[in-house]
Design a protein that fits this description.
The protein is built from nine helices and twelve strands. Helix 1 crosses helix 4 (59-86). It is rod-shaped, with a radius of gyration of 32 Å. The chain folds into three domains: 3-86, Orthogonal Bundle (Arc Repressor Mutant, subunit A); 94-160 and 265-289, Periplasmic binding protein-like II (D-Maltodextrin-Binding Protein, domain 2, 3-Layer(aba) Sandwich); 165-260, Periplasmic binding protein-like II (D-Maltodextrin-Binding Protein, domain 2, 3-Layer(aba) Sandwich). It has a five-stranded mixed β-sheet with strand order 4-3-5-12-6, sandwiched between helices. By secondary structure, it is of the alpha/beta class.
Length: 292
């Protein structure tokens, strides 16, 4: 017995006419009749009562047809699930992001939920260094992190670039200026990311300051942007940041820097990944970020 026999059985049961069922199945009537007889012989039960005037289901035939509907329904569901899984419409996606606000990530997740509601999202907050390690070990599928990153096993795509700003306590003397020069920070107590957290950004900032003729006075070290801004709120110093965090911290004064370098955010994933869900999500991310 194969699925074709079940589909033939259902067609005849619904039409109660071998000729109409054959037309519906796009086959000729004699082979259809032969297939139904073969099925009856295999099952050892009469499914239809036939005469020149009508075709009727037997009691056993009614029960068998009910089961055929159930089996075919399961097969159709199986086929649909397989197609959705292959197309990245269902499954699991583990995502990591830094403590900052990523508009691209938010918009991408919103669009993914709309297009593929069967995908279960696991979102974790990790700094860039932790994300690189988690990606390398396969604990997350995709990360939204700060660039540059030097890890040959990862594919990296730029999704956003923001100018470097400064976060100041509300009553800080520099807060009265609309825009700051970098050298105005030379003697300030700075709250700085540990290099292990985001090596690329750390090196960019420290090099930028050295080029201006001073070393950063790092009085406090943190492992996240949330940690840095918490210390700024407590009046413990000044921190570098990007403008996208402003709305979440109204008690902090944020100021742009003149001739500031730009901080790049990217999406990272393993080069050897073959996940349909990830491929689908990356397509959405590129659309959201305006990438080809």
């Amino acid at each position: 017995m194969d699925l074709r026999h079940l589909r033939y059985l259902v067609a005849v049961a619904e039409e109660l006419h071998f000729g109409r069922a054959a037309i519906r199945l796009n086959i000729s009537q004699p082979p259809l009749s032969q297939q139904i007889r073969q099925l009856e012989k295999e099952l050892g039960v009469e499914l239809f009562q036939r005469n020149k005037r009508e075709v009727r289901l037997t009691d056993a035939g009614k029960r068998v047809v009910d089961e055929a509907y159930r089996v075919l329904g399961q097969i159709d569901h199986f086929t649909k699930v397989a197609a959705q899984a292959g197309g990245g419409e269902i499954g699991h996606l583990s995502v990591a992001t830094t403590g900052g606000v990523s508009g691209t990530l938010i918009r991408s997740l919103k669009l993914l939920a709309k297009q593929s509601p069967g995908v279960r999202i696991e979102l974790q907050y990790m700094n860039t260094g932790m994300q690189v390690e988690a990606l390398r070990e396969g604990r997350i599928a995709v990360g939204f992190l700060n660039l540059p990153v030097n890890e040959p096993s990862l594919a990296l795509e730029l999704i956003q670039s923001e100018p470097l700003w400064v976060a100041l306590p509300r009553n800080h003397p520099l807060a009265r200026y609309e825009r700051l020069s970098l050298n105005s920070l030379a003697n300030q107590r700075m709250i700085l990311f540990a290099r292990r957290v985001t090596p690329g950004v750390h090196d960019t900032i420290t090099s930028m300051c050295r080029n201006e003729g001073f070393d950063i006075n790092a009085t406090h070290e943190v492992d996240s942007l949330v940690g840095a801004l918490t210390l700024v709120s407590a009046g413990l110093g000044v921190a570098f940041c990007t403008p996208s965090v402003r709305k979440l911290w109204p008690e902090i004064s944020f100021r742009p820097l003149r001739n500031a370098t730009r901080i790049e955010q990217g999406v990272a994933y393993r080069r050897d990944t073959e996940s349909p869900v990830l491929r689908s999500f990356l397509h959405i991310v590129r659309q959201t970020a305006g990438k080809p």
